[in-house]
Design a protein that fits this description.
The complex is a heterodimer of chains A (980) and B (199). In chain A, 60% of the residues lie in helices and 9% in strands. Chain A has 980 residues and is an alpha/beta fold. By secondary structure, chain B is mainly alpha-helical. Chain B has six helices and four strands, in the order H-H-H-H-E-H-E-E-E-H. The chains are: A alpha/beta (980), B mainly alpha (199).
């Protein structure tokens, strides 16, 4: 038979095959230790099913197939598993891989094994599984699991089955010897494969350098019913390559990147066919194979049937290796095989040849010279590639270009390297380039995978974020709803609301407690200071400290109480707001009244309209006032009072400070005989009066706080009017003084000033009238108003008295206002009568004696004193014609002053007695307080002086000043407690 | 005069027609997103390590498309820089932070005895390659790990190691043949002479 086809290129290396065909196949000795790698094939490594120490029989499964491309691994001989570990395996890298190490017992005892009586009786699937379970994989070179190839009939139309008996590589004679001795088995194996794949045509390709094998095959083929052709082809390397073989036998070229099955061809090795026969007919798994042992270093090169896992050393020894001559061991052929160093490496299912070469036989590769672009490589390439170009691309790492030049069609046969005159390791370059490209691709796959995972994670996180936000919103809504429900409930239960409203009280109480604590500490410090420095008033300080202690405790207690039972306090009404409202209303009322009065005077405008407005305004004022009073009488909490008191006190103290400063300044001025002395004096007095007013207010507040009696209803209003009137009076007085001064200095503005004074006087009278008017309508029959009425009566009577005295004065001085005054007095008298009547009607008992109101008394006295002083000052400076009038005024004031003073003295006496009862000498205390104040002034002066001179002991002085201030403050406090 | 007018009108008409055609095409065949970003992204190693200063590979790809430097990807190494330079037709510049040979591939490994189960590494992992739950031991899914070492920093007990990926028979690859081990004789002599000079 002759070939009709040929493939491109090819080489004719020296064959060296006769050397190992001289002897028949011999059985290799069973080694002491069999090393069976788990991965002897392409695909996933098998999974171990034995444990260390397990006894195994020959042919027993020791590792099972995992996944589709995988086969079982069997024990090559009987013995014991002594290790499952990494051992060196036949691989180009020389790396280690997991192996099962079996200690052979030498008995070589088979497990139960049985072939199939009739493989055609069972299904094809069952037959393929049978083959798979017997561990059959390709024996040619790559070790592809055979069962996968046998499945190709499922999804491909297999027209031709090609059996590869080429064995084109030099040195190797394993298939040749197999065919010579076991051609029948091979044919029977082919029959099984053909049964599974059902091809139209079976071809056995064999090179013409194996005449004995060809003859044996032809003999064996006579007995088969298959459409079988034995095709003898000329010897040329690499005719044994799958694609080259197919081209050679059928003329069909397998497209790049496809498998032969795509063109209806399946290729199998004859060794595989023999293994299938053994498995199917005899039930023998693939535990041994025929391996060629050859090379110059061996004494008896021949083929051996050796057990899988037999170390190379055992085989080499059996072949009579000459260790001295052994230069290198090659597994596989000289063209495609690889060099190994380790003799303990086991042989595996794909090991078809072991070459023990001497130095002369396989010298080291000669040094590579530069490519001379001879193009010989291109001529021998069986894949019709451009090896030279691929070399350049691989060397320059231009893998993309190499890929475009069909690098992956290279079968790495080594023909190009074989012919290269420059000894370039071309195949190594291609392998390197292929590995790089494969790795790049796998990296790319991995990167894509990572990106997918990353994006999926990002999407998930985003989703989670959105869900979280939704949940948060939901929660907020729920909370709002719950809050609303709670609020509704709270409105139903006023108690809880009260608890809420009690909070500010608590705060003020807390502040009060804290303040008192701080004060106590200060006092204690001052006391200590005093003791250290031996200052006077230590006893007093001690007393103060004890008192403060008591106060602090009381404040704390009050706070605690409030904290414990906060719900008792009454609903808070904005008293301040009410007060403001009332004040505003009052002001409006006043304005309206003024407007009315003006209109009446000038006879202009719509009187009726104004009057109506006035009435309306009055009503409004009364409502506001009533609301305020109600709130104050019922709702003012002690804490608020105390806060107010503190405020007043602070004001008072500030005023005091101012007075002192002014005094000091005055002293300085007097010392320096400054021209401004007089003015300053006036200022001082003014300040003094202010301070006293402040103090009076404060004291009033305090007394109000301490007294439980309900305040008369419109007292506030009346008081306000009164204040207005008094303020006006003061203004009048001031203006008068200024006028007098102006007259004295014969200033040209005197006339103008006079007019101003008169105007002021008129205003004052108006205010007074308003005040009286305000008093008039507030009559009522309620018992609560009785007190008010009484107070009014009293004030009126006082006024009547005053007016009368004023009238007398005026008459005495022949004043033109005397008649007017008389009219006023009469009016007042009538009003008083009216009031008294109303009071009697209301059910009250007319009272003659005035109730003692120390605050008012004191205030009155101080006001009187101021007025008196002012009047005297005015008198001193007044001209002769005015003197009589002024004198009368002074006398009147003196009278009033004395009257008030008597009352005050009476009261103070009572106070003194009270203080004495408590063991404190009020007078002494007063003196102490005054001294302390003086000390403060002194210290202040000293500090100022020190500041001016910038002396070093400034801090000392300042310290002293602070101490003095503290002392003064304490004493004042103590004093104010008693003078309350 | 007429010829000129006809010519001008004809050209105007053509300009109008092609302008309309181009305008329609730009609307009808609009490309969604920037295609160059996808190309750059496919070159980047997708470790999502953030060593470039961007939160992941795609943001860096976008930054490169907007003109950022191409040499900020240490996991990609010089080969990535070259690939990017090739794609963008710019000069290949050395890797930022010094010339570094191909980076050694690593995977995270959790010393499981020391793991306290804080889940911090799980939150840090950009590709969900760490498995575990609160107060349970964590472990790395090696096949999913990109070796970005973002999980090392957050570990409170420092039980995460970055181990180099072990080469197996499947991942083993051929090295580049060493070129010119023994060159021509004159060169060889030169090398020897040089060695002698050094000594």
């Amino acid at each position: 038979m002759s070939t009709q086809f040929s493939f491109h290129g090819g080489v004719h290396p020296p064959e060296n095959k006769q050397r190992s065909t001289g002897l028949a196949i011999q059985t290799a000795p069973i080694p002491a230790e069999l090393v069976v790698p788990l991965s002897q094939h392409i695909g996933a490594p098998s999974e171990v099913v034995v444990a260390v120490g397990d006894p195994v029989l020959k042919g027993q499964v020791i590792a099972e197939a995992v996944g589709r491309i995988s086969v079982n691994v069997h024990a090559p001989s009987s013995g014991k598993v002594i290790a499952i570990e990494k051992r060196s395996v036949p691989h180009i890298s020389g790396m280690q891989a997991p192996c099962i190490v079996i200690e052979a017992d030498g008995k070589d005892q088979w497990c139960d094994h049985q072939g199939l009586d009739d493989y055609t009786a069972i299904s094809k699937q069952a037959l393929i599984d049978f083959i798979r379970h017997h561990g059959i994989s390709g024996m040619g070179g790559a070790g592809f699991p055979t069962d996968v190839k046998l499945h190709l009939g499922d999804d491909h139309i297999v027209n031709t089955l090609v059996l590869n008996a080429m064995e084109c590589e030099p040195y190797i004679t394993a298939d040749d010897m197999l065919l010579r001795e076991h051609a029948d088995n091979v044919i029977k194996g082919i029959e099984i494969i053909a049964h599974l794949l059902n091809p139209h045509h079976v071809m056995i390709g064999i090179e013409d350098n194996k005449p004995q094998a060809i003859r044996a095959l032809e003999l064996a083929a006579k007995n088969t019913s298959l459409n079988l052709d034995i095709i003898v082809v000329p010897t040329i390397y690499p005719s044994g390559g799958e694609k080259q073989l197919i081209k050679l036998l059928t003329g069909i070229e397998v497209p790049s990147g496809r498998i032969p099955a795509d063109v209806g061809i399946v290729c199998q090795n004859v060794g595989t066919a023999a293994a299938i026969y053994e498995a199917v007919y005899e039930g023998m798994p693939l535990i041994s194979r025929i391996v060629t042992l050859t090379g110059e270093a061996l004494a008896h090169p021949h083929n051996m049937r050796a057990l899988i896992g037999t170390p190379l050393k055992t085989l080499l020894d059996a072949a009579g290796v000459n260790e001295q001559a052994l230069y290198r061991m090659v597994i596989g052929g000289p063209m495609m095989g690889f060099t190994v160093d380790d003799q303990s490496i086991p042989m595996i299912k794909t090991t078809n040849c072991i070459i023990a070469a001497t130095y002369a036989e396989m010298p080291p590769a000669p040094p590579a010279n530069p490519c001379i672009r001879c193009g010989m490589c291109e001529q021998v390439c069986p894949a019709e590639l451009l090896p030279q170009q691929l070399y350049w691309f691989a060397k320059g790492k231009e893998f993309e270009k190499a890929k475009h030049h069909n690098l992956f069609d290279c079968i790495e046969c080594g023909a190009c390297s074989y012919v290269c005159p420059s000894n370039l390791p071309l195949v190594q370059y291609y392998r390197f380039a292929k590995a790089e490209i494969r790795e790049e691709e796998s990296e790319q796959r991995k990167a894509d995978h990572a990106r997918q995972r990353f994006e999926a994670r990002q999407a998930r996180l985003e989703q989670e974020k959105i869900e979280k936000e939704l949940r948060r919103k939901q929660r907020a809504e729920d909370a709002a709803k719950a809050q609303a429900v709670k609020k509704d409930k709270a409105e139903l239960h006023s108690e809880s609301e009260q608890a809420v409203s009690a909070e500010p009280d608590l705060k003020t109480l807390k502040t009060a407690a804290a303040v008192s604590r701080t004060k106590l500490k200060k006092a204690q410090k001052a006391l200590q200071n005093a003791e250290e420095k031996g200052l006077e008033g230590q006893d007093k300080l001690k007393v103060t400290v004890t008192e403060l202690e008591a106060k602090a405790q009381a404040a704390q207690e009050a706070y605690d109480q409030a904290l414990n039972a906060p719900a008792v306090s009454e609903p808070v009404v904005d008293i301040k707001q009410l007060k403001t409202n009332a004040a505003v209303a009052r002001t409006k009322l006043k304005q309206a009244e003024k407007a009315l009065a003006k209109a009446e005077e000038s006879g202009e405008g719509d009187l009726a309209d104004l009057k109506a407005k006035l009435v309306e305004q009055k009503a409004k004022t009364e409502t506001a006032q009533a609301a305020y009073d109600a709130a104050e009488s019922g709702g003012q909490s002690p804490a608020q009072d105390s806060a107010k008191l503190d405020e007043l006190k602070a004001e008072m103290e500030a005023a005091l400070g101012k007075v002192e400063k002014a005094r000091k300044a005055l002293d300085v001025a007097i010392a320096g005989s400054s021209p401004a002395v007089e003015k300053m004096k006036l200022g001082v007095e003014k300040l003094q009066s202010k301070y006293e007013a402040c103090k009076a207010e404060y004291e009033k507040e305090t007394s109000q706080n301490s007294s439980v009696t309900i305040k008369p209803l419109s007292a506030e209003q009346i008081a306000a009017l009164k204040v207005d009137a008094e303020a006006l009076q003061a203004k009048v007085a001031k203006a008068q003084t200024a006028l007098d001064q102006a007259v004295a200095s014969s200033s040209p503005a005197a006339d103008k000033m006079k007019a101003g004074v008169e105007k002021l006087q008129a205003k004052y009278e108006e205010a007074q009238a308003c005040y009286e008017q305000a008093l008039a309508p507030s009559t009522g029959s309620n018992t609560s108003q009785l007190d008010e009425l009484k107070a009014e009566i009293e004030t009126l009577s006082t006024k009547v008295k005053k007016a009368k005295s004023a009238l007398v004065n005026a008459q005495a001085s022949n004043s033109p206002a005397a008649e007017k005054m008389q009219a006023g007095v009469e009016k007042l008298q009538s009003k008083l009568d009216q009031l008294t009547q109303a009071f009697v009607q209301a059910g009250g008992v007319p009272v003659e004696p005035e109730p003692i109101d120390p605050k008012a008394l004191k205030q009155q006295v101080s006001i009187m004193r101021t007025k008196l002083k002012k009047a005297q000052a005015a008198l001193d400076e007044a001209e002769d014609d005015n003197q009589s009038e002024l004198k009368a005024e002074v006398e009147r004031l003196t009278l009033a002053h004395e009257e008030a003073k008597v009352k005050l003295d009476e009261y103070e006496k009572i106070q003194l007695d009270k203080a004495a009862a408590e063991g404190v000498d009020l007078k002494q205390l007063k003196v102490d307080a005054a001294m302390a104040r003086a000390a403060v002034t002194k210290a202040e002066r000293a500090a100022e002086k020190a500041r001016e001179e910038q002396t070093d002991d400034l801090t000392d002085i300042e310290q002293q000043l602070i101490v003095a201030q503290q002392k003064s403050e304490q004493l004042n406090q103590t004093l104010s407690r008693f003078t309350d | 005069m007429d010829y000129i007018l006809i010519a001008v009108l004809a050209l105007l008409g053509l300009a109008l027609a092609f302008g309309l055609l181009l305008g329609f095409a730009s609307v009808r065949f609009r490309v969604e997103g920037n295609p160059i970003v996808d190309q750059i992204d496919s070159i980047l190693p997708q470790t999502q390590c953030g060593q470039c200063g961007y939160p992941g590979c795609r943001p860096y790809a976008e930054a490169i498309a907007n003109g950022d430097a191409i040499n900020k990807c240490p996991p990609g190494g010089q080969s990535t820089v070259e690939a990017l330079a090739d794609l963008l037709d710019v000069e290949a510049i050395p890797l930022d932070g010094g010339v570094e040979e191909e980076p050694i591939k690593t995977v995270a490994y959790i010393r499981e005895d020391e793991c306290i189960g804080c889940t911090k590494c799980i939150q840090a992992c950009p590709v969900d390659a760490i498995l575990g739950a609160a107060k349970q031991m964590h472990t790395v899914i090696v096949s999913e790990c990109t070796g970005c070492d973002l999980c090392v920093e957050p570990c409170p007990v420092d039980c995460i190691d970055m181990l180099p990926v072990e080469t197996t028979l499947n991942t083993w690859k051929w090295d580049m043949p060493k070129p010119g081990v023994q060159l021509i004789v004159t060169d060889l002599r030169g090398e020897v002479a040089e060695e002698g000079a050094v000594q």
